[in-house]
Structure formats: C-alpha cells, structure tokens
Write a structure and sequence with these properties.
Number of helices: 6
Strand order of the largest sheet: 1-2-4-3
CATH topology of the largest domain: Zincin-like
Structural class: alpha/beta
Number of domains: 2
Distance between the termini: 25 Å
CATH architecture of the largest domain: 2-Layer Sandwich
Order of helices and strands: EEEEHHEEEEHEEEHHH
C-alpha cells in the first residue's frame, strides 16, 4: 500500500499525518503520551487535516489529559518484594539465585518465583519475565481464538504476540492475521478475550462503524465494559517500547 507521512502543527499540537490509499479520514489519540495521528486519503490536503483536528480539538485535549493523568506502573528493578501482574492478579516477586537454567513460575497463587543466574542484569531479568509472559499467552490463545472463530464464523489464518506502544491488538483482514499486545498478559483474562474478539470481528468489518459495534454487541454484550476496564488499568512505564 502506497503511504507517506509527515508532521504538522495545529494550535501547538504536533500531528502525525499519514496518507494512504483509504476512503475516509481517521483521527486517533494514542497512549501513553497522547500522540495525535491522522490517517487520510491520498487526495486530502493538509488544510483539510487542520480543519478536522480543530473541530475535534476539545476531544483531543480531553484524551491527552486522561492519558497524562492515568496511573502508570513504576519502573521495575526485578528484585524480591516487587509487585508484578499476570492475568489481572497481583503477585509478589521472589528472585532466587541459582546455577541452573533461569525460569519463572507461580507459587502458592501469590508469588511469582524467578530463578536467575547470580550474574544476570536487570535487563536480562526483564527479558526472562517477558519471555514467560509470551509463553503463557501462547498457551492460552489457541483455544481462545478457536472458540471465537466458531462463534463469529471467521477463521484467523495466523496470529502473533508483540509489544505495541499504541494498541492492544491489530488485524490485517486481507492476510487474516491478528497481533496481540504482550502487555495483555498482565491484564484480566476477560480483557484479553475482549481484544481477541475485537480483532476477529475486524474480519467482518474493517472499521469501527455502527456495523462493527453491532457485531461486538451481538457476540460479546459486555464488550464496552471490558474496553473501559482495560483502558482504565495502569499503563506500562513510560519507557515501554
């Protein structure tokens, strides 16, 4: 797909403008810092983009204020006694030095036990925990995706997990491929399921129009509640990439 991107300034707000082969203008404000992005058809001039931003300026500023005021996770040092989350539950980290293969496991439903080599750095411990998060999601997602493929009546050709800074999930309807944010491993299971349903429904409807919302309400009636809960949970630390 042919695309081009640049930035413009509208009333002191930096706006990322992405031109691509689409039919309609799409404006969005992304966490964690309220970045503004406008995707527009190739033919749309910057003056029209400025007007679109100006007409939604109060909404943009309100979204940015919410992101700035939203609770964020403090930066983790990966030492014993820290709080870490898995599937919405809080666990206390217990770091144990070993001379065997490093690993992570849940103990007694309250403790996240991390076996590390004595020489491991903070970054290596973080990598170990996120590898465990990734493996855990890979164990959970196949059955969940298969369940909702059957309910929705659409099949996912491929799926993957990655850390994303601005989205909980993405869908490429043409390739029938979905991506889920690795950070979802920390969130409640029903929030993960909401994102899975959201992305599979995009195989039926690409945009977030009334048809899309109708599908969501039909397949998962409490979806708005799950979305609000997910978006109200603490964002990752500001250095999340």
């Amino acid at each position: 797909m042919l695309t081009s991107s640049h930035q413009i300034n509208v009333n002191g707000i930096t706006v990322d403008v992405v031109r691509k082969k689409i039919k309609n203008l799409h404006l969005a404000v992304y966490p964690p810092d309220g970045r503004v992005r406008v995707a527009v058809p190739l033919r749309i001039h910057d003056d029209a983009v400025r007007m679109a931003v100006l007409t939604r300026l109060s909404w943009i500023k309100d979204k940015q204020a919410k992101f700035q005021g939203q609770v964020r996770q403090s930066e983790r040092d990966y030492i014993s006694g820290e709080s870490h989350y898995f599937m919405g539950q809080r666990y206390l980290l217990d770091v144990i030095a070993v001379n065997t293969k490093p690993r992570v496991m849940i103990k007694n439903h309250t403790t996240l036990e991390m076996h590390v080599l004595p020489t491991m750095t903070r970054e290596e411990k973080e990598k170990l925990l996120y590898a465990w998060y990734r493996t855990s999601l890979k164990n959970i997602l196949p059955a969940m995706i298969e369940k909702w493929e059957g309910i929705i009546g659409e099949s996912v050709k491929s799926w993957g997990i990655k850390r994303m800074k601005t989205r909980w999930g993405t869908c490429n309807p043409t390739a029938r491929r979905i991506w889920l944010n690795l950070e979802l491993a920390k969130k409640p299971l029903h929030c993960l399921e909401y994102v899975v349903v959201h992305e599979i429904v995009h195989l039926l409807e690409r945009t977030h129009n009334d048809r899309f919302k109708g599908f969501m309400s039909s397949f998962m009636p409490p979806w708005r509640h799950y979305r609000a809960e997910l978006n109200a949970l603490p964002l990752a630390h500001e250095t999340w990439e």
